[in-house]
Amino acid sequence: MPKVKDVCRHVRSKNAGPFWVTFDLFFDGAENFRKYAESPALGPPLFERLFGADPAFVQRYPVESLNMVKISYARTEPQGGMVERDMHRGQQYVRLLDVELD
User: Fold this and answer.
1) pTM for the whole thing?
2) Looking at residues 4-12, what average pLDDT do you find?
């Protein structure tokens, strides 16, 4: 099974305001976008397991013209809390790289 890092040319995570985090997965072409943009492996259960996100607040936005998918989830705590270790969430994407897609 291919992993995210095998079919995406760029993956990033970032702050989407004080209450949301977003991931951008830029696929390496239209074929892989069509195959994997709607993969169940990238669904709410993954974000619940990896980030503690409430599955009801995980949203997926495919952008076909860019061969990318944006996946956002509501933070469990607002940005800037006492125990915040990555305030801008710029390092969170690493956990997605080895996710196997189906």
Assistant:
1) 0.91
2) 98
